[in-house]
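Colleagues,

Please find the record for the two-part complex below.
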Amino acid sequence: DAGITQSPRYKITETGRQVTLMCHQTWSHSYMFWYRQDLGHGLRLIYYSAAADITDKGEVPDGYVVSRSKTENFPLTLESATRSQTSVYFCASSNKENTEAFFGQGTRLTVV
Amino acid sequence: EDQVTQSPEALRLQEGESSSLNCSYTVSGLRGLFWYRQDPGKGPEFLFTLYSAGEEKEKERLKATLTKKESFLHITAPKPEDSATYLCAVQGGTGGFKTIFGAGTRLFVKA
C-alpha cells in the first residue's frame, strides 16, 4: 500500500538493549523525520534527513542513531535503551521544504 | 528561542457551539505555519498551511487564520467527530525547515 509505514507498532524492551524502529515511505519524498511524542512536550524532532545519505540532528538526538542508505527507508536505532526513551515515536516525510509532512501511525516503545 | 504555545490545553464544547483555538509563535522569518489533527493512537493528519500574515484557509467547519504573532483555528458548529487533538507547528527562524510543534489542544465535542 502507498504511504508511510512504521514497524513495529508496539515494542517492549529492556534497559540497555539496542532496538531499531523502522520507517518506510512509498512516495519517494526527499525529506524524512523522526519525532517523539510525550505528554506535556508535544512532538519533538529527533533526527531528520534531506536526502539519502544526508542526516542531521534535531532537538533531542542524544541516545539515537539514524541512517538513510535508500530514499524510502529511515530507520531509528536506540543504541542502549533507557527508561527516559519510553515514548511514542513518529516517522514523517515531506516532498519539499515548507510543505506539510505525512506521518506514520507511530511506534509505542516501552523501556523496562 | 523559537517557540510555539497553544491554548487552551483542553476545550469542551457542546455540539454546535463555535469556538477558536489559539497558537502563539515566536520565530523570526516564518516560512510556514501548519495545523494538524491527531486522533488517539494515530499519527497527525495535515489540515492547513499558512505562509503570510492575513492569509486564511477553510475546510468544512474549520477555518485557519494567521497574524504576525499568532494563528487561530476557528471551529464553526462543531460535531462530535471533530473531537481530536489539534496541533500547531511552525517552520522558520533558527531552525530553518525543521518544524517546531506546540503541545496541542485537546478538543471534546459532546452531542
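Chain A has a mean pLDDT of 94.

Comments are welcome before we finalize the supplementary table.
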